[in-house]
Design goal:
Number of helices: 9
Radius of gyration: 18 Å
Strand content: under 5%
Structural class: mainly alpha
Order of helices and strands: HHHHHHHHH
Helix content: 55-70%
Number of strands: 0
Shape: globular
Largest sheet: none
């Protein structure tokens, strides 16, 4: 199969997923809302309790973009846990590294961080579009974020994506029409969990 054919096939699949998940289904929209509300809400709460009068360090902008994927387009390959976690971590590491190597030349460091993030996400098969923003934040963020260095990778990035993932696993599996992650093995595991309601095991 040629690369062009693969791209076209991937485009058709993505188009179908977007069409299917944006149909007017108020039940599905409700759970998308609840999941994203709790995911971002918990991160925001931790921010308010830890640094009430400081920079918004924990609530980085790329988490909003990730929420669109992991709560609103849950069948997308780009929304799966490997991509969510790996994409952000790879991009955060690259962003911090570039910021340390080229701290004062924004017109080089900003595009370099984003471009390297894209390539390394492709190489590691963890492509997650919000990862580009995570890398960029490491370059253009506040002094507090830059001061964190590689600790930025662990907190807020890793801690934040784990919260988003946990909420996604909980709220994206409330109804029988939703399953996240979409991997078949998770579907088998879900059916074997004794405390899941019967309607979730269909």
């Amino acid at each position: 199969m040629s690369s062009v054919h693969k791209i076209k096939k991937g485009y058709r699949k993505t188009k179908y997923i977007l069409y299917k998940e944006t149909l007017i289904d108020f039940t599905e929209h409700f759970w998308s809302f609840i999941g994203s509300f709790f995911g971002i809400g918990i991160i925001a709460y931790l921010q308010s309790q830890t640094l009430p009068s400081s920079d918004i360090v924990f609530l980085i902008g790329s988490f909003g973009a990730s929420s669109v994927l992991v709560y609103g387009v849950i069948q997308s390959p780009l929304a799966q846990p490997r991509n969510l976690i790996g994409g952000h971590l790879v991009s955060a590491i690259i962003g911090v590294s570039v910021q340390k190597i080229i701290p004062d030349i924004l017109w080089i460091s900003a595009p370099l961080a984003v471009s390297l993030s894209i390539v390394f996400m492709q190489i590691t098969k963890t492509l997650h579009p919000p990862g580009g923003a995570t890398a960029l934040i490491a370059i253009t963020g506040s002094a507090a974020i830059k001061k964190m260095g590689y600790f930025y990778v662990l907190n807020p990035v890793l801690s934040g994506v784990l919260i988003l993932l946990l909420m996604a696993i909980i709220f994206n599996n409330i109804t029988s029409n939703r399953q996240y992650p979409v991997h078949k093995k998770f579907g088998i595991i879900r059916k074997r969990i004794p405390f899941f309601p019967k309607y979730l095991k269909k």
